[in-house]
Specification:
It is a single chain. By secondary structure, the chain is mainly α. The protein has helices at 18-26, 54-65, 83-95, 102-107, 129-138, 151-164, 176-185, 187-190, 194-202, 215-220, 222-233, 261-270, 272-282, 289-292; strands at residues 8-10, 118-120, 143-148, 210-214. A four-stranded parallel sheet has the order 2-1-3-4, with helices on both faces. The longest helix is centred in the middle third of the chain and has 14 residues, at 151-164.
Length: 296
């Protein structure tokens, strides 16, 4: 356990199971997790700590009154009444509006005491080399987790989110050139490359402190994946905690957009190099991806 700062930081990727990770760790007795999933500290020059905003508390109130209400991952996720949670919120308020500082960031976790704790913020995939170097130097005990997914499936999941929020016109799928233009222009859809993120971190970390977790394993062998992650973080996978199944997915009933053959072809061509590079760099389940799209 790192006595100073977070014991781990999950640096992405988006749409790869980071919500599953937060839920599994929060339910385990070896962890104190912050009352918000995404701290959004390291990726902002002046962190807003938006979980302190009024809308976060209002969202918590709505969820309290309606258990079916969906709660954003960037607002408070539980009642802030435990001493550790109160200490966390009070310290966060004291540093809000101050420039990003790794020392202040580390102090966000001072209330963890003897427990393990960390930060799960998918947008950290975009951290620059200088910030990565600072984290590695000033928080040498922190382990880094990178969740990765078949790039085609990850991008399509992001498109489904846009579709659910009425921000994606499905008619675009009938115009391949228009769809390909979207992939080139949208960083969050076509520009996220897990291999680049991994290489950026591995230039500054010992390999033993960096772990890749495959979405495929979360989906297909969740119990084994949970145990593997817990051991990497220094927790006991056999210790009983809150009754949460290893395959729990709070987004299981979210509406999804069907992947068309044309979109699949466009996505696999767009991510051709990344799919092949992932198989080589990550191994494991990523070795299955090229054949999935006729690239082997």
């Amino acid at each position: 356990m790192s006595r100073h700062g977070p014991d781990f930081i999950c640096v992405g990727m988006p749409k790869t199971g980071t919500g599953w990770l937060f839920d599994q760790l929060e339910s385990h007795p070896d962890f104190w997790m912050p009352p918000v999933k995404e701290l959004l500290y390291l990726n902002q020059e002046v962190p807003r700590l938006q979980f302190l905003e009024d809308r976060s508390w209002r969202a918590l109130e709505r969820a309290r009154n309606n258990t079916k209400k969906k709660v954003s991952e960037r607002v408070l996720r539980r009642e802030v009444s435990a001493p550790r949670d109160i200490e966390f919120i009070n310290y966060a308020r004291s540093i809000r509006g101050l420039p990003r500082d790794i020392g202040r960031y580390a102090q966000l976790f001072r209330c963890k005491g003897e427990l393990l704790s960390g930060d799960i913020t998918p947008p950290y995939w975009s951290l620059d080399e200088a910030t990565i170097s600072s984290v590695a130097t000033e928080l040498p005990g922190a382990k880094i987790l990178l969740l990765v997914r078949d790039p085609v499936a990850r991008a399509w999941s992001r498109i489904s989110v846009l579709y659910r929020n009425n921000n994606f016109d499905p008619n675009m799928l009938e115009d391949r050139s228009r769809f390909e233009s979207l992939l080139r222009k949208s960083k969050k859809i076509g520009g996220l490359l897990a291999t680049e993120v991994a290489q950026n971190w591995l230039r500054h970390l010992e390999a033993k402190n960096f772990k890749v977790v495959f979405f495929d394993d979360i989906a297909e062998v969740p119990q084994n994946t949970r145990a593997d992650v817990l051991r990497f973080l220094g927790a006991d996978p056999d210790k009983p905690g809150k009754p949460l199944p290893p395959d729990y997915n709070r987004k299981a009933d979210y509406k999804k957009l069907d992947l068309t053959d044309g979109a699949k072809a466009a996505l696999s061509e767009h991510f051709r190099d990344e799919i092949v590079a992932s198989a080589e760099l990550f191994g494991g389940r990523a070795r299955e991806w090229p054949a999935r799209y006729g690239l082997s």
